[in-house]
Amino acid sequence: MKKRRGAKVADALVFYCAVMTLCLRLSVSQSNTTTTVPVKVGVVLDLSHTTAKIGLSCINMSLSDFYASHSHYNTRLLLHVTDSHSHVITAASQAIDLIKVEQVQAIIGPFTTMEANFVISLGDRAHVPIVTFSATSPSLASLRSPYFFRAAQNDSAQVNAIGAIVQAFGWKNVVPIYTGNDYGKGIIPFLTNPLQQVYVQIPYQSSISASATDEDIKAELYKLMTMQTRVFVVHMTPNPGERLFRIAYEIGMMNFGYVWIVTDGLGNEVNSLGSSVIDSMQGVLGVRTYVPKTERHDDFKVRWRRKFVKDNPTLVHTDLNVFGNWAYDAATALAMAVEKAGAKNLGFDMRNNASGNFSDLLKLGVSENGENLSKALSETRFSGMSGEFSVIEGQLQASTFEIINVNGKGERQVGFWTPGKGITRDLNFTSTSTAYSSSRNNLKPIIWPGDTSSVPKGWDNPTNKKKTMRIGVPVKKGFTEFVKVTHDRSTNTTDVTGFCIDVFKAVLAVLPYAVPYEFIPFEKPDGEPAGTYDELVNQVSYGNLDAVVGDTTITAARSNEVDFIMPYTESGGTMIVLLVKNKHKSPWNFLKPLTWDLWVTTAFSFIYVAFVVWVLEHRINDAFRGPPSHQIGTSLWFSFSILVFAHREKIVSNYARFVVIMWVFVVLILTQSYTASLASLLTVHQLRPSVTDVNQLIKNKLNVGYHSGSFVYGMLKKMGFQDSQLIPFGSPEQCDELFTQGSAKGGIDAAFDEMPNVKLFLATYCSKYASMAPPTFRTDGYGYVFPKGSPLVADVSRGILNVTQ
């Protein structure tokens, strides 16, 4: 009986609990139904744009997902969607209607920067937060409205990433191509600073109107083709960006040698571009906002695609982009902020309206909940679809950028850029290095325009016809160790060799890009030199040659017309003179090792030491006694015999012994110095320069030689030499012959040339001639010649350092 009663009680308790649970659920459900407050939110988008459609679908899914997981919230966003039809006035008019008629608490949008400019001012006046996920121009930040929130990256956040890419490949000139509106112009001031910090110049800015026709774009691209720069940074929206690349492909600007870098305006939407556009963008580099790959994001993409294709069956090939992720996070942030701000004061204060004035702008009320909602948005933090959501001073904080390379049917990821690490191959931060990197080695292999892996040098000749550099070389008969031109008549070929040529080829080998070239000898049809070195250098300034490679001296006058690389030889010029033997021989040469003062001092020392020893010894030492003549002779003999350590007299006094020890040291030093000096005088040939002073040559009107065709002729004229004194020579052999003749026979008594030539001459005739030091005149050595402003100058100069070191 007790067991049966216990079972009945247990059944009753279970039934009671089930009834109570059901009643509790009904109560909670009824409570939620009765306390949910709809909060009106306006949406102003250009629904003809694919990205706007992606954003709207993500907003709807965001709210659906959010309230499914936050069913206990008391507020629900009620969207009022309007279409701006890509018109600024229409967007502003719809914003006014949403605020005045619908009394929305916030507005998501507008879609473009131009539309946002005016709508932000309306929101600021009515205290209605404006939340955009697609207006990215830095110019909007200047409005400084507390009611403007950008749930997207500011375009200025990517400029350091672009600067790092340009620095990584060593390009020195960049031309930005941008849309001529607020969106395009807004990034230019911010792009200039990071490029200037890495010494990159912007020689030209290409502005293309948003309403430009294909002919307008083609004309601008043809203009860019006439310039030297081949690195372009494109900051455009898909229209007209798609047309720009299609036309560039048609006219040959997507071939090898060109570099195209797109900002996130196109980079974020590469996945949404058509296959024909992708085909015309092969080899393009780009930056776009990095979206972390998570299971939640992958699941959302699958659900979003299913819903988007169902709602937009004509856009089956459209993929989710970062704007959709930003739209999703913007809607989530607004829903959280609305709940936090509360739904007690959703009305508008209309007391500020001017009675009798029918202006729509003056009829706008002020949202009573706007300030609370704005504050709540500023404090909203969460992990969203695009990463960590944090809006500081109305701006989503910058994060990581992905570096992409358009190749094949889409794009490939080649690296990342972060504010702290710079360029990295991946986002694995296990490395202990904290240095900022801008090295190309941190990027994966890149396929450049023209389907090549060779890095473009970033510049080219202004016309498409000249692809091979025409490099002039001097033709001469002497000093061919530097440059030698040899013609093979049988094969009709020309061979250019020499030290200067070897250095040039070694430099080209270390450059990060290829430079096609051909050597053009500066000669007449008969093989004779076509002119002087100055005339050869002028061919570059005239545009007849692209460079000059040879033993060309860097001078101030030449540098006014052309640019030189850093010198690769010793600088300075000097005078060469004959060495003559000293023919003055004398039997008294043995006296020359010591001066007369030293001879007299030595003789006095002998006598003095003899006297001191006699004083100390003659009273106690029998060897120093006897007749006066004997004592004097013995003392002097003792002093002199110490020279050869042949003295026989014994010293008794300790004082005398001390004197003798000191005298032995002095004698030892004296004899060794004399012996060394005399040996040098008797064994070394006494050679001296025949001339030691340039003024002596000018005063005596002696002839001097100079290397024919060089600038030395002008230097000698400035020194004061007359034409009758100046005799050219073309080879070391000819110079030696002129020295042999001398001025009396029409030869020379001195020659002037640059240090490399002088060293070569002295190496051949080392025993006959000498160079004067210091150098007679200053030069900067030999250097290669390029046109003014040539980008090769800096690269070849760095190559010279690599080769010479």
Account of the protein in words:
The protein is an alpha/beta fold and 805 residues long. The chain has six domains: 1-34; 35-154 and 325-396, Rossmann fold (3-Layer(aba) Sandwich), CATH 3.40.50.2300; 156-292 and 400-442, 3-Layer(aba) Sandwich (Rossmann fold), CATH 3.40.50.2300; 471-571 and 784-804, D-Maltodextrin-Binding Protein, domain 2; 587-683; 687-771, Periplasmic binding protein-like II (D-Maltodextrin-Binding Protein, domain 2), CATH 3.40.190.10. It contains 25 helices and 31 strands. Helix 3 (88-100) packs parallel to helix 4 (113-126), helix 8 (214-225) packs across helix 9 and helix 18 packs across helix 19. It starts with a helix and ends with a helix.
Structurally, the number of domains stands at 6
CATH class designation of the largest domain: Alpha Beta
At CATH level 3, the topology of the largest domain is: Rossmann fold
Poorly predicted parts: 1-10, 12-24, 26-34, 354-358
Helix content: 40-55%
Could you say which structural class the secondary elements and strand pairing correspond to? alpha/beta
- What's the gyration radius in Å? 46 Å
Give the DSSP E fraction (strand runs of 2 or more residues). 15-25%
Tally of alpha and pi helices: 25
Family: Belongs to the glutamate-gated ion channel (TC 1.A.10.1) family.
Pfam family, one: Lig_chan
GO cellular component, one term: membrane
Keywords: Glycoprotein, Ion channel, Ion transport, Ligand-gated ion channel, Membrane, Receptor, Signal, Transmembrane, Transmembrane helix, Transport
